[in-house]
Design brief:
CATH superfamily of the largest domain: Amino acid/polyamine transporter I
Helix content: 55-70%
Strand content: under 5%
Shape: globular
InterPro entries: AA/rel_permease1 (IPR002293), APC_superfamily (IPR050367)
Mean pLDDT: 86
Number of helices: 23
Low-confidence stretches: 1-16
Largest sheet: 2 strands, antiparallel
Oligomer: single chain
Number of strands: 2
Pfam families: AA_permease_2
Main location: membrane
Order of helices and strands: HHHHHHHHHHEEHHHHHHHHHHHHH
Keywords: Cell membrane, Membrane, Transmembrane, Transmembrane helix
Structural class: mainly alpha
Membrane topology: Multi-pass membrane protein
């Protein structure tokens, strides 16, 4: 009988697009790409918050886990929609403003989608390091080059004088040794590492570079696209094995330093912010120190909250009433384990100075650091390089699967452009996937260097915090306006209230933290990018659809036609919006970077 039901469900689903092919375990495995996101910004957060870094990850993960219960409740109300929490929460705002709903969906998408470009940039860095390594200063090749070119610098050379002027207290021999070492590394670095087809400025944003990282990253994105072209069931199968291969060794490596006694208590005590970002020097709990701490919580949210993607696949679950909650709950527990453990183990062994190594900050040296945690040699390091590339694939596949379904459902509900409302014969939203790919080619060109990498991260996270603010408030709005709708799982009322408070805490992170990541205008660029959806929605809704939403857009709420229901929450949603904006602006004004 069960097989008959599943077949009928799959057939019915396929006739309208997405196919019901998953159980909660499948959705769990697709969301299993979230834990590796810790590797995207573990170095950046350590540089920004110093010894507080592991505490930042723990606080952020606890917040993400608590918030997920609001998302689990509202997701259960929409058994016929895909696209994740932003879709389910956006419907709560429709009664109060048609423009808030597409804003929430758009902000969620442009926050999640850059995982493709950022992950591929790091993976490309690993591949370049493996095939075309930059020699170390102490490597035999560099030492041989120095010996052969020793006569090229003398004590009276202008370069030596310039170096000494910048390094007080050093000798001429120190200068010659340092300069020759730098010259040797540059001479022996493979040309592909500095090659670029073209480099250009994107006005008011950043510099773009079509280099080796860009082309390797683009190829990796195409590989992931090909895997997901087969549909969600095939994607979940690949994700399952990738997750097992990646997460089990990562868990063992995280636990080993704790049980082997490698954690240095000096690295995890005297918890104060640094004097400045990447200074490596302990500071004070001043205004500047608090700003750095809040900046860490701001960027950590992009990773720790991400397991909410487990509810992106409600429309593809065989039994959404029970599987939706299980998927997000167990995904949250998995993320708690890794986001607590990995930053603690890294910091406990490496210390603040070790976490500031360039390879940790840009992500390409994480494999070597992991090998160091278990005292692994060259072979172990190479195996971990492969493991890290697979971990990045895991995260990227999760992001493409979730973000493309957000675009698809947003189009189906009349919020985003009509052309995105399309799936192939396997039930994969291919036009949305191609849109993801094209958008991320632009971001990949920007993220090909460290500065551009954190610019993309900081700006995209503006959208993510806006989405979380709107969705956490959607929990209580749905309670007031749609109390009659069955909820397969209902969160305790006190938790809905607590998560509403956390919405404003997130607004505090946004106002104070967006400026921390090297771009003082990141908040405003993020707001501008968020606003781009407004004319797009206006064209779709008022020109293309004649001011009407597609049939069935609100059927999960028991509404038919263009009836959006009664505004039982009254003025409260508008008060929440005004309050959130006030918190962001006040925090942005009050909290300032240390000088």
């Amino acid at each position: 009988m069960a097989s008959i039901v599943e077949t009928e469900g799959s057939t019915a689903a396929s006739s309208s697009g997405l196919i019901r092919a998953l159980d909660w375990k499948g959705a769990f495995w697709v969301a299993a790409g979230v834990p590796p996101l810790v590797l995207f910004s573990i170095g950046g957060i350590a540089g920004t918050t110093g010894k507080l870094a592991f505490v930042v990850w723990i606080i952020s993960m606890i917040m993400g886990f608590l918030q997920s219960f609001t998302y689990a409740e509202i997701a259960g109300m929409f058994g016929n929609k895909s696209g994740g929490a932003s879709i389910y929460g956006a419907t709560a705002w429709l009664r109060y403003s048609k423009f808030i709903a597409p804003l929430s969906v758009w902000c969620n998408w442009f926050a999640w989608s850059p995982v493709l470009s950022l992950g591929c940039a790091i993976a490309a860095g690993y591949i370049l390091n493996a095939l075309f390594p930059i020699p170390g200063a102490e490597s035999p090749a560099v030492m041989e080059w120095i010996n052969a070119n020793m006569a090229s610098l003398t004590a009276d050379s202008p370069r030596v004088a310039e170096w000494l002027a910048a390094h007080a207290g050093k000798t001429s021999q120190d200068a010659i040794s340092a300069l020759l070492s730098t010259d040797g590394i540059a001479a022996l670095t493979p040309a592909v590492r500095s090659w670029s087809l073209v480099s250009f400025d994107i006005p008011f944003l950043a510099n773009a570079n079509l280099n080796a990282t860009f082309f390797i990253g683009a190829f990796l994105m195409l590989v992931i696209f090909a895997i997901q072209h087969r549909g969600i069931q095939g994607t979940a199968s690949v994700q399952k094995w990738l997750a097992i291969i990646v997460l089990v060794p990562l868990l063992i490596i995280g636990l080993y330093p704790i049980f082997s006694g490698q954690i240095d208590s000096a690295n995890i005590t005297n918890l104060v912010p640094p004097t400045a970002g990447y200074s490596g020097v302990d500071g004070l709990w001043s205004n500047g120190g608090w700003t750095l701490f809040l900046g860490g919580l701001y960027i950590a949210a992009w990773s720790t909250y991400g397991f909410e993607t487990a509810v992106c696949y409600t429309r593809e679950l065989k039994n959404p009433k029970t599987d939706t909650f299980k998927a997000i709950f167990y995904s949250g527990l998995l993320c708690c384990l890794f986001f607590f453990l990995i930053p603690f183990a890294f910091q406990g062994v490496l210390g603040h100075a070790g976490m500031l190594a360039p390879g940790i900050v840009d992500g390409t040296g994480v494999a070597e650091a992991l090998a160091g945690l278990v005292h692994g040699g060259r072979i172990v390091t190479q195996l971990l390089v492969i493991l890290m590339i697979m971990a990045l694939f895991l995260a990227i596949m999760t992001a493409m699967a979730g973000s493309s379904r957000t675009l698809y459902q947003g189009s189906k509900d009349g919020w985003l452009p009509k052309y995105l409302d399309h799936v192939n014969e396997h039930g994969a939203p291919t036009r949305a996937m191609w849109t993801d790919f094209a958008f991320n080619l632009i971001l990949l060109a920007i993220a090909s260097d460290v500065a551009g990498y954190f610019f993309v991260l900081a700006v995209s996270n503006v959208g993510y915090i806006v989405f979380n603010f709107l969705n956490l408030n959607a929990g209580w709005i749905h309670r007031m306006d749609s109390s009659h709708i069955q909820r397969p799982w209902k969160a305790p009322t006190w938790l809905i209230g607590l998560n509403t408070v956390l919405a404003f805490v997130n607004a505090l992170f946004l106002g104070a933290g967006a400026k921390v990541w090297g771009y003082s205008n990141a908040l405003w660029v993020g707001f501008i990018f968020a606003a781009l959806i407004l004319p797009v929605f206006a064209y779709r809704h008022y020109v293309r659809d004649g001011g009407k939403f597609p049939a069935g857009a609100m059927e999960d709420l028991g509404l038919v036609g263009q009836d959006l229901g009664i505004k039982k929450a009254g003025i409260l949603p508008y008060v929440a919006l005004a309050g959130g904006l006030a918190v962001v602006l006040a925090a942005n004004w009050y909290f300032q970077l240390p000088v």
